[in-house]
Structure formats: structure tokens, C-alpha cells
């Protein structure tokens, strides 16, 4: 490789690195801007209860896919850590649903806030070829409705959850 080719290659590599850095920075700014816009709409999440009754639906292991603003299945909530995917365990109690997420704060969905529990083909950028995502629609204390998505490790376990709105 001659000197001119080496210099041209290095200049091109530097331009590519700068462009990739600029795109990543723009994406992070967009995510932060979305979170700022949604903060007032989402408000605070319901507090965790001190005690709960016996589990109505035993713990279901899987993946917390994320939460979206209802009814748009692709409008991901960016406030706090609600928009990040993580391993999770979903458990139904008489008082509500507990979503225990690894590496993130647990989410408590009070029973009186739940408006629908159904299966979907996609939510928050996660799309499947079959209805394998459990979507829990619930109303936040702020009045906004969101869908919380969960993909079970074993899809057959979702049948225990569907139709559990009025437990």
C-alpha cells in the first residue's frame, strides 16, 4: 500500500468513526427528549404493596419487553427504566400484578388499574410471527393508559394469564 492510499484510508476511517459517533449521540438525545416529554404524562408509578395475598397465577419467567403508550404498540415509554428490556418474573396476586425485573425496579400493577390482559404479536419494537407477547393494559395514577409487554419463556403459560382482568 502506498502512502496516498494509506492516508486516504485513514481519512475515510476517521470520517466513518465521526459519523457513527454523531448518530449515536443523536439517538441518545432523541431518547432523552422523549423521556422529558413523557415525564408529565407518565407521572409516578404505583407504590409496591407492603403485603400481598397468595399468588393467583404462579410466577411466570420470561422477558419484560417494555411498556408503550396505549393504544400505539410501538410508542415505547422512555421514562425511567420502563423502556428497557430485561429478564423478568410475572406473578398475579389478588391485589394486582408484580413484574420483578432483573437489573431494574419492580413494577406493581394494581388490580383496579388493569383494563385488559391479552396476547399480541408485537409490542415496543418486538414482533413475533405468532401471538406470544402478553400485553397488560393498565391505567397509571396520572390517568394515562399504557401497555406492559411480557414474553414468557414457555408460550403455553400465557393461557393462564388471558382473561384475568377481573380477578
UniProtKB/TrEMBL annotation:
Keywords from the UniProt entry: Membrane, Transmembrane, Transmembrane helix
Domain of life: Bacteria
Membrane-spanning ranges: 6-24
Matching Pfam families: bPH_11
InterPro entries: PH_bac
Residue ranges of domain PH in the record: 42-164
UniProt name for this protein: Transporter
Amino acid at each position: 500500500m502506498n502512502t496516498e492510499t494509506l492516508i486516504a484510508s485513514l481519512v475515510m476511517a476517521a470520517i466513518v468513526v465521526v459519523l457513527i459517533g454523531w448518530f449515536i449521540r443523536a439517538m441518545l438525545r432523541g431518547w432523552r427528549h422523549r423521556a422529558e416529554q413523557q415525564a408529565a404524562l407518565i407521572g409516578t408509578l404505583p407504590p409496591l404493596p407492603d403485603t400481598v395475598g397468595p399468588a393467583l397465577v404462579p410466577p411466570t419467567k420470561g422477558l419484560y419487553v417494555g411498556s408503550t403508550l396505549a393504544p400505539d404498540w410501538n410508542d415505547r415509554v422512555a421514562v425511567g427504566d420502563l423502556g428497557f428490556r430485561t429478564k423478568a418474573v410475572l406473578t398475579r396476586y389478588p391485589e394486582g400484578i408484580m413484574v420483578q425485573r432483573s437489573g431494574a425496579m419492580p413494577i406493581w400493577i394494581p388490580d383496579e388499574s388493569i383494563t385488559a390482559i391479552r396476547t399480541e404479536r408485537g409490542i415496543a419494537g418486538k414482533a413475533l410471527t405468532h401471538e406470544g407477547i402478553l400485553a397488560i393494559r393498565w391505567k397509571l395514577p396520572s390517568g394515562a393508559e399504557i401497555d406492559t409487554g411480557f414474553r414468557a419463556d414457555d408460550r403455553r403459560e400465557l393461557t393462564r394469564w388471558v382473561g384475568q382482568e377481573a380477578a
